Amino acid sequence: MQDYFLSIKSLKVLYEQKGETVTALDSVNLSLNQGKRGVIIGPSGCGKSTLISVLAGLNSNYSGEVLIDGRPPTIGGETAMILQDFGLLPWKTVWDNVVLGLKLRKRTTAEINVAVATLLEKLGLCSLAKRYPAQLSGGQRQRVAIARALVLEPRLLLMDEPFSSLDALTREEIQDFLLEIWEETRLTILLITHNIEEAVFLGQKIFIMSSGPGHIQQEVENGLAGASHLRGKVQFLEMCSSLRSFLRGRYSDAATA
Amino acid sequence: MQDYFLSIKSLKVLYEQKGETVTALDSVNLSLNQGKRGVIIGPSGCGKSTLISVLAGLNSNYSGEVLIDGRPPTIGGETAMILQDFGLLPWKTVWDNVVLGLKLRKRTTAEINVAVATLLEKLGLCSLAKRYPAQLSGGQRQRVAIARALVLEPRLLLMDEPFSSLDALTREEIQDFLLEIWEETRLTILLITHNIEEAVFLGQKIFIMSSGPGHIQQEVENGLAGASHLRGKVQFLEMCSSLRSFLRGRYSDAATA
Amino acid sequence: MRQPLKKGLGTMSLVISIIILLFVWWLLALALKSPAVPPPLGALKSFLTSLRGELLIHLGISLYRVLVSLILAAAIGVPLGIFLGKNPEIDARIAPMIYLTYPVPKVVFMPIFLILLGIGDISKIVLITLIIFYQILVTTRDAAKNLAKGYISSVRSLGACSRDLYLHVFLPGCLPSILTSLRLGLGTAMAVLFLAETYATQKGIGFFIMDSLSRMNYEEMFAGIIAMGLMGFILYIMLDKMEKALCEWVHL
Amino acid sequence: MRQPLKKGLGTMSLVISIIILLFVWWLLALALKSPAVPPPLGALKSFLTSLRGELLIHLGISLYRVLVSLILAAAIGVPLGIFLGKNPEIDARIAPMIYLTYPVPKVVFMPIFLILLGIGDISKIVLITLIIFYQILVTTRDAAKNLAKGYISSVRSLGACSRDLYLHVFLPGCLPSILTSLRLGLGTAMAVLFLAETYATQKGIGFFIMDSLSRMNYEEMFAGIIAMGLMGFILYIMLDKMEKALCEWVHL
Amino acid sequence: GQTKVTAVKTAPEKLKIGILPLEDAMPAVVAEKNGYFAQENLDVELVRFQSAVEQESAIQSGQLDGIVNDLIVAALLKESGQNIKVTSIALGSTPEEGKFAIVAAPKSGINTLADLKGKKIGIANNTIIEYVTDGLLEDGGIDPSLVDKVSVPKIPVRMEMLFSHQVDAIVVPDPLLTFAEFKGAKIVVRDTARNLSQSVVIFNQKTLNEKKGAVEAFYRAYANAVDDLNNHPVDYQQVMIDNVNIPEQIAKDYQIQRYPKPQLPAEEDVNNILKWMTKKGLLKTDLKYQDLVEKI
Ligand SMILES: Nc1ncnc2c1ncn2[C@@H]1O[C@H](COP(=O)(O)OP(=O)(O)OP(=O)(O)O)[C@@H](O)[C@H]1O
Ligand SMILES: Nc1ncnc2c1ncn2[C@@H]1O[C@H](COP(=O)(O)OP(=O)(O)OP(=O)(O)O)[C@@H](O)[C@H]1O
Ligand SMILES: [Mg+2]
Ligand SMILES: [Mg+2]
């Protein structure tokens, strides 16, 4: 048996509130090697964000086994995450929001300034550094959240629909940028998306989650991932449409069940 | 000269804050006939949300002429909108959030109950009626926001990236549902999206906005809109890719400029 | 992370708190050796004796005065506070008035109250009301001011008029802060009982304590303090329960 | 919608407020015809005369006492309040202690303070501090409790330890409420001056007012009240300015 | 004693009298308790206050017809523009009545007035307490400016400060004076030599003008009560404990003092007070004995 960097076994997560119990995840099994890029797709409400929050150590109220590099998830550390609602602090400017993680890690100011400036530049946020989140457009906020996670140079990067508010072109640019970073640092990435093209472009392994109490229904090894030149080519589109049909089939299954 | 339902002439919007002035929109001209579906696409931060908020009457700090059915925009009334950040009230349950608009319009309880229950059913939210927004997944929240706007049966529906957090299939279902409603009521719709397929599928008129201080750079009449059977067909894909190239071209123009 | 508090925890921590307070008190009494700080045992005995006597009546009357004042102050302070928070231009005009009058000790207005309202319960209630009114007003105003603008535009876009905004946005949105101000107001109201109940009354826990003090019957005075503490405590618990019920959404 | 308030508006509404207050006062004085409510003109004259006298010294000393108390109370109340708001389990244990002791009128502890701290400034400052401490504590605690959980998890995921959370989430997130509690505390502190400065001192605006009252020199007393109102007003304006500077993000 | 019953039974006239929980209120309390007011067809409401400030506010606001307080308060009220008159002494027709004293802390080593020089002495500013203090010091040949007067208005607090040695001496009236002695404090000097302190009954001029008959009737009832108190003091021990602030430890043994029949204060005593007040700057107008008193 292989030692996975990320290994989840029979994970079950319940939300309990005044009597009512919601089963968000049930018997989730998932594993990912170090330095791989995994993508999760699945219907709305199936528990993707819940899964990410468990991995990030934000939700420790689960049963089952969750191991990151052999240890149960802890908050902070070498994991960075992008929350679905961005999680920017309204009382900090863009710059301060992005800088925060490095400051907490006690980096020197010089180091911080260089790293952050470069990243903001890359994400087209330079001119916005002094604004507060409330003064940004939706996509700008999302990019700040991306910057905030990337600047940490984490070993594990958890991203919850990180590009959902970006226009197609900016989205592709940032996807490319993410790949660049991955090439450089070979970090492990787990990304949630609703965009099938994105899944195919980024995910070396694609996990398809079922609706209802979510579990991993299908795991797809994807050889096309990361190949910029294939984008929009027949091979690529075929992979997308096969994924789409799978999802559609699963859906109608659920409908008849 | 024609009388448009929606008519914007040389609209300019500035955000002013402690000295700094941000020009969000400059010389925007846009018009849409009654009962038509318009879609706006454009790069992140180009001013799409700003435009919608002006039309919704939320931002009256603009110069230029904005007319809806001949009158300047007022808040409420026969316009409904879906905000980019959903704008759900955290202290109201899903049910109460959706019901609110009708209550404010003094509909009878019986009327309200029927309308809301049907809509929640359609959007797959029935079982969530008693939950608070904080207890929902991102996509579920977005659907609540959609329900809240649709239940009002407005004459003008303004939607700011309304389907961005939905998985591909749910998204298509709700797109279809929106078309159904449109067929029935022939309301006027103006929708912002980053998804080019969505733009082509929904938009009878597609407005492409420039980056920077945004203005309408291109208006595309789209004969393919609303044809479910064409989705994924060659014609459809060609339209998408021509739009994409246009956007890309415009981008590289900007880069060389 | 947040686990539901066990059922018994409430009572247990109450008991522990009381024990700690009594212990500190006992230490103080030992250390100071002053009649002004009687040992807790004597005070407790006196408390029990008084309970059989008129203490309950005193408590009841004070409770009535405090509650009426609190309700009155909230009934005026909350809508006015929301109104000012909602309309910063008007607030900018009214604020100086508030800021000029709030710090003035209300005792100096006593003659005015007495002339206008007589020496009965009404003047007492108005005095207490006035003092806590400011606290509720300022807290509610600040909360309304700081309410995220997004909620307001969201509900306005649904066609809400001004009244609807109060009802569906400002009131529920400020409710947590309003409850905070009620907590503060409650404490203040009880603390100013000693002002309001020193004239033209022989009833009320404030009278009881100040009367014991002036007779230098410190054990009885501390019996009154115990009673006051317990009464306040029960009211606080009720406010906490109210918050749990009304602000469910905060605790998700 | 929200337009920047014009520069002069502040001063103008101050002037208008003062005129309205004086007018109401004048009406009251006319209607009540009681020596306890002198007409504003006499009080103003007395105010001007007193200003040339020792009034400024009284104000200065009170200002010192109020500010020291406010800073002390905030220095203890804010961290403790955040700590309790952040840790609901501990709060559940401590809350009974707060709820039991808050409503007890602090005047009854005056003898204890005097015994422990002497008759100097310290006992006065401690008395004021104690009273406003509760207000700051409860407000801050409630604000910390109601802070959106999302911010906390977001910053924890960046690797924040407990101390970082205080600094980057709780403190800035609760700052608007803390400033509210400082406003309340300021008002309360000034209002209890008349308690704290009635014993063992010949200085302070509280002394000035209560001394005038005991001499039934009502014009002088109202001169003191005017001074107190103005002093409070200036402090409030400073708090407002502070808020503008510190909580920029709220006003976007 | 039985008094004449008015021929025509009209609605009883109302009088509101503000009292403090002090010895000087006893005759009024007893008159109420024994039904003497009712016999006079009077409806007297004794409004109880715990501190003089509120009592003064109440008479100024016209809520009261009269109060029982001291001459300094009477003069201050008059000075402030309140039209009142002192109509009788409640306590203090002789120096023996209404006892005050300078009390030194136990083990303070203060035995005589001379020992007080430079020492802290707890008083209440601008009140009868300060007047008595100055009077006692001057009579003992000590310049009042040589002692360090510390104002502590609340008597219980003043007492506590004495016993916790925050001050070296205090000035208090009876019964707390007896209580302080009981607890080991040393009496330095009593005001039994010269008549410094008088409690008086003060009426609003308006009441005196409009309800002259009622005030006369009040005094008839009052005089009856004084007789009762002086003749059977023991019978009223419990009434006193209930209505006067007396520490429990001495309550049982504390003797009810003699009360004077209604009479006006002596002109000399009043003038002394007015002179002192003028010197202290408490009086700006030239108040005369005649302005202040009215014989019923
Ligand atoms: N605090 C909560 N209390 C109760 N139920 C919750 C809570 N948070 C989430 N849920 C429910 O748990 C399920 C999984 O939620 P989760 O946010 O993980 O979904 P998701 O896969 O991220 O969906 P989306 O794609 O819409 O973001 C949903 O059905 C949601 O309603
Ligand atoms: N309150 C504000 N103060 C200052 N600038 C603002 C404010 N709100 C928006 N902006 C700026 O105005 C521009 C237009 O914003 P808008 O939200 O309309 O963009 P958008 O087209 O909706 O972008 P997105 O697709 O990212 O949502 C952006 O550059 C943004 O930074
Ligand atoms: Mg999610
Ligand atoms: Mg937008």
UniProtKB/TrEMBL annotation, chains A, B:
<keyword id="KW-0813">Transport</keyword>
<keyword id="KW-0067">ATP-binding</keyword>
<dbReference type="Pfam" id="PF00005">
    <property type="entry name" value="ABC_tran"/>
</dbReference>
<dbReference type="InterPro" id="IPR017871">
    <property type="entry name" value="ABC_transporter-like_CS"/>
</dbReference>
<dbReference type="InterPro" id="IPR003593">
    <property type="entry name" value="AAA+_ATPase"/>
</dbReference>
<feature type="domain" description="ABC transporter">
    <location>
        <begin position="8"/>
        <end position="236"/>
    </location>
</feature>
<protein>
    <submittedName>
        <fullName>Taurine import ATP-binding protein TauB</fullName>
    </submittedName>
</protein>
<dbReference type="GO" id="GO:0016887">
    <property type="term" value="F:ATP hydrolysis activity"/>
</dbReference>
<dbReference type="GO" id="GO:0005524">
    <property type="term" value="F:ATP binding"/>
</dbReference>
<dbReference type="InterPro" id="IPR027417">
    <property type="entry name" value="P-loop_NTPase"/>
</dbReference>
<dbReference type="InterPro" id="IPR050166">
    <property type="entry name" value="ABC_transporter_ATP-bind"/>
</dbReference>
<dbReference type="InterPro" id="IPR003439">
    <property type="entry name" value="ABC_transporter-like_ATP-bd"/>
</dbReference>
<keyword id="KW-0547">Nucleotide-binding</keyword>
Automatic annotation (TrEMBL), chains C, D:
<feature type="transmembrane region" description="Helical">
    <location>
        <begin position="125"/>
        <end position="144"/>
    </location>
</feature>
<keyword id="KW-0472">Membrane</keyword>
<dbReference type="GO" id="GO:0055085">
    <property type="term" value="P:transmembrane transport"/>
</dbReference>
<feature type="transmembrane region" description="Helical">
    <location>
        <begin position="63"/>
        <end position="85"/>
    </location>
</feature>
<dbReference type="GO" id="GO:0005886">
    <property type="term" value="C:plasma membrane"/>
</dbReference>
<keyword id="KW-1003">Cell membrane</keyword>
<keyword id="KW-0812">Transmembrane</keyword>
<feature type="transmembrane region" description="Helical">
    <location>
        <begin position="221"/>
        <end position="239"/>
    </location>
</feature>
<dbReference type="Pfam" id="PF00528">
    <property type="entry name" value="BPD_transp_1"/>
</dbReference>
<feature type="domain" description="ABC transmembrane type-1">
    <location>
        <begin position="59"/>
        <end position="243"/>
    </location>
</feature>
<feature type="transmembrane region" description="Helical">
    <location>
        <begin position="165"/>
        <end position="186"/>
    </location>
</feature>
<protein>
    <submittedName>
        <fullName>Putative aliphatic sulfonates transport permease protein SsuC</fullName>
    </submittedName>
</protein>
<feature type="transmembrane region" description="Helical">
    <location>
        <begin position="12"/>
        <end position="32"/>
    </location>
</feature>
<dbReference type="InterPro" id="IPR000515">
    <property type="entry name" value="MetI-like"/>
</dbReference>
<keyword id="KW-0813">Transport</keyword>
<keyword id="KW-1133">Transmembrane helix</keyword>
<comment type="similarity">
    <text>Belongs to the binding-protein-dependent transport system permease family.</text>
</comment>
<feature type="transmembrane region" description="Helical">
    <location>
        <begin position="97"/>
        <end position="119"/>
    </location>
</feature>
<dbReference type="InterPro" id="IPR035906">
    <property type="entry name" value="MetI-like_sf"/>
</dbReference>
